[in-house]
Design brief:
The structure holds 2 protein chains of 2 kinds.
Chain A: H1 3-20, E1 22-24, E2 27-28, E3 46-51, H2 61-70, E4 84-90, E5 97-103, H3 111-115, E6 121-123, E7 129-131, H4 141-145, E8 152-153, E9 172-173, H5 179-182, H6 189-193, E10 199-203, H7 210-217, E11 220-221, E12 233-236
Parallel strand pairs in A: 3-12
Antiparallel strand pairs in A: 1-2, 3-10, 4-5, 6-7, 8-9, 11-12
Chain B: H1 2-20, H2 38-59, H3 68-75, H4 90-97, H5 104-107, H6 113-119
Classes of the chains: A alpha+beta, B mainly alpha.
């Protein structure tokens, strides 16, 4: 190695060192990249535990509450917008029937986020999976990717939205876990409306929360656990 | 002569503009003290809104002073609670004058929250 190279190297070293030295206490001239600052501290993970044994067949209070809160027109046709829907299941051999609500499962590793070409589908730091409709181009890849069929495409023009829940034609949407209510310290509308208290909402990471204690004391399952998406919505009594 | 003509033109132009052109007349709603200087807002409100929108959607930052809901709360007309319903509504009047299309209200409500609650109370 020639002498010139060595001098260049030492010059770079000293200049880097000088730049890293604080201009003032606590302020560095340059800093390493930290990525995006988190929403909240990133320790919270919102989730739900749905007790299927408490969910009444034929009751759709959660669906009605969701539609009202988010200004959805309702309806169950193939093109209708459904953020939450009631599903009736039956075990063929025994004839045992169950009824349960289905919505976005707010996965830790959401396939909808993986496939989104514009970055519109994203996961907040508190675990809520959302669509940024400013970025959504309506390609519907996420609808194909979601194993729970949780997402809907808005086919019709929308008027008279809830000022807290903007939504419009040409974009994909799904359960937001009532993010506008959570940010104000409230519960999602479906959890609040359930007369049988079948939906328990809370922070899955907070050792003092009811949901934390309950998922440790009763058997709960994640739907399609084989996909290892680590869903935020858990079911009990299936 | 040439100098006189150009001087006349210089004086005449602003006068003609001041008298002949119609400036948009807005229904500013409740109005009152805006979050920033009014002239500054005329020029920069779109940047504030865009910045706030990303903070709200991605980080859950709500109820800060630069939110679209905040604008609507003060500036929606006291007659119809809207910022877009009429030709002289707060957003429409200027945007029509400047021929700039607003996309916000394709998705966002143009009404005050209180008005929406009243209609959807049942």
């Amino acid at each position: 190695m020639s002498e010139i190279d060595l001098r260049r190297r030492s010059f770079f070293k000293t200049s880097m060192g000088a730049a890293a030295v604080a201009i003032a206490p606590g302020i560095l001239l340059f800093d390493t990249a930290h990525g995006k600052p988190p929403a909240g501290d990133g320790k919270v993970r919102w989730g739900m535990l749905i007790d299927a044994t408490q969910c009444r067949e034929g009751c759709s209070d959660c669906v009605t509450a969701c539609n009202k809160e988010n200004g959805l027109p309702g309806g169950t046709s193939a093109t209708a917008v459904q953020w939450i829907r009631k599903v009736e299941i039956k075990e063929v051999s025994t004839g045992r029937k169950m009824s349960l609500p289905m919505m976005c499962q707010h996965c830790e590793k959401p396939p909808c986020v993986d496939v989104c070409p514009t970055g519109a589908s994203f996961k907040r730091h508190d675990g809520i999976v959302l669509v940024d409709r400013h970025l959504c181009i309506g390609c519907r890849y996420c609808m194909m990717a979601c194993p729970y069929k949780a997402r809907s495409f808005v086919h019709e023009p929308v008027t008279d939205q809830n000022p807290d829940v903007p939504r419009g034609k040409g974009t994909v949407e799904s359960c937001t876990l009532c993010v506008h209510r959570i940010d104000n310290g409230q519960q999602p509308a479906c959890a609040e409306s359930c007369t049988n208290k079948a939906i328990l909402f809370g922070d899955l990471n907070d050792p003092d929360s009811d949901i934390f204690r309950k998922i440790r004391s009763v058997a709960s399952v994640q739907l399609r656990a084989d996909l290892r998406l680590n869903t935020g919505i858990r079911y009990q009594g299936l | 002569m040439k100098l006189f003509a150009s001087l006349l033109l210089c004086l005449w132009m602003p006068m003609a503009l001041a008298t002949g052109m119609t400036v948009p007349k807005l229904d500013i709603g409740k109005g009152g003290q805006c979050v920033e200087d009014a002239q500054w807002m005329r020029k920069n409100h779109m940047d504030l809104l865009k910045h706030q929108r990303d903070d709200t959607v991605h980080k859950g930052v709500r109820n800060t002073k630069h939110s679209l809901k905040g604008c609507i709360e003060c500036h929606a007309s006291t007659l119809d609670d809207s910022v877009t319903a009429r030709a002289d509504s707060f957003c429409v009047a200027c945007h029509r004058y400047e021929s700039v299309k607003i996309d916000c209200f394709e998705c966002h409500s143009d009404k005050r929250k209180s008005a929406w609650l009243q209609r959807n109370a049942k």
